[in-house]
Amino acid sequence: MKSLRNLAAALLMVALLVVPASAEFEFPEFDLGGETVYLWCWYDIGIEERIAEAEELFNVKIELPQVGWETQTDTYMSRLLAGDSEYDIWYVSHQYAIPIMKDGAFYPMDTVLPEEYFESMDPHLKTMIDNLILHDNIYAFHSMHSAMNDMSFFVWNKSLFDREGLPDLNEAYFNDEWTWELATEIAITATRDTDGDGIVDQYGFSEVFAWPFVLSHGATVVEKDETGRWVFAMNTEPALQALQQIYEWNHVHQVAEGDWFQTPFREGKRAFANMPAWMLWSLADEMDDEYGILPYPKGPNNEYYTAPTDVLNMFYLPANSANPLAMAAIVDFLMADPDDYFYEVIENQIVGQAPDRVSAHIMEEAILNWDGQFDIVRGFAGSSILDDAMWTIISGEKTPAQAMSEIRPQMQAAIDDLLN
């Protein structure tokens, strides 16, 4: 695996593209008179040398307090309401940002940063920002991550494919033949009793994650209608088709069995796994078989391959920021230069996660093709109602159309409360 990762690194150094920036916005100089700036995050962001440089350049002391992952909303709102956040910089996962965004917790950054600032960003980073615009205001303005940080991929067990005489999925991908139909055929063939005891012990899939699969098919939980109002969208044809496919894998073909962590795949007993990218960091050390990485297979609604993301982690400023332009300048200084963002943020992740050069190329194409496939209402807006309805589909109790139709009024009320 290590030698293959070296090959991936060599490939990426040659193949990745530099996107030229437009005219860049120049921040003015700031002297903050020794103020203490608190940059909040849920993990240690490191970059000690860069922090020290920023402290000297801006005449500030930068503290790096850590917030609990699940307490982001409460912590930030408590600081805002107490008036303690004037020199705060908040790094927030979008699932915790959206509920307080509508309540005015964040500073509208488009009122202090000009259009050319956003236009000069790496296009991928700008797409992340554009997908978090609410009520025509830009609140999220930068990131330490890319959408690939929590992007979901299909992983295929190449060793199992060799053992079972299954087709090469790299060829299928490049021939535009990696589809639901092919995944189904492979899963059916792979699902069998391998030791002759009369019990099926090898399957096509472990647990198939419903949300990434729905998002990969061009569907989403909510979308804007022609009036700009957010509406429930899980009853659209692309969503229902994706839910029906999951139902068929589980109940018609009976080729899916496993758990969220994809344990049987790691043990060499599944042809496929679907995994968030952060699981890929350690996968090579957790399984003996060789594996490859793919985007989600194409369904009838897909024009191209997609790999949706689960979470967008972004920088925000509190609404009572004492000097929002200076805080934005500090963040901009700490982060990668726009011309280097793709290499420093995305390439490093690909090289660290791809098991071989083909997977590295496929992951690169996935991030270049990403144009906003994510769930803006993840974890709220009736999520428990939706999860319960999803289970009735996966368990075979209800059809996708029936389950989604039944919860539509409740879901729309929750969406109205959150976004409208």
Describe, in short, the structure shown:
Helices cover 44% and strands 10% of the residues.
- Average pLDDT, all residues: 90
- What string, H for helix and E for strand, traces the elements in order? HEHEHEHHHEHHHEHEEHHEHEEHHHHH
Q: What is the general shape?
A: globular
Q: What helical percentage do the residues reach?
A: 40-55%
Strand order of the largest sheet: 2-1-3-10
Strand content: 5-15%
- The total of helices stands at 18
Radius of gyration: 23 Å
Whole-Å distance between the termini? 49 Å
Number of strands: 10
How can the largest sheet be summarized? 4 strands, mixed
Look at the helices and sheets and give the structural class. alpha/beta
Low-confidence stretches: 1-22
Summary keywords:
420 residues; alpha/beta; 4-stranded mixed β-sheet; 18 helices; 10% strand
Note down, in words, how this protein is organized.
With 420 residues, the protein is an alpha/beta fold. It has helices at residues 2-15, 48-58, 72-82, 94-101, 115-119, 123-130, 158-164, 169-174, 180-190, 210-216, 237-252, 263-266, 280-286, 324-334, 341-353, 357-369, 383-394, 400-419; strands at 36-40, 61-63, 88-93, 152-157, 203-205, 222-224, 230-232, 270-276, 291-294, 313-316. The strands form three sheets. A four-stranded mixed beta sheet has the order 2-1-3-10. A four-stranded mixed beta sheet has the order 5-8-4-9. Strands 6-7 form a two-stranded antiparallel sheet. Strand 6 and strand 7 form a beta hairpin. Helix 15 (341-353) packs across helix 16 (357-369). The longest helix is centred in the C-terminal third of the chain and has 20 residues, at 400-419. It starts with a helix and ends with a helix.
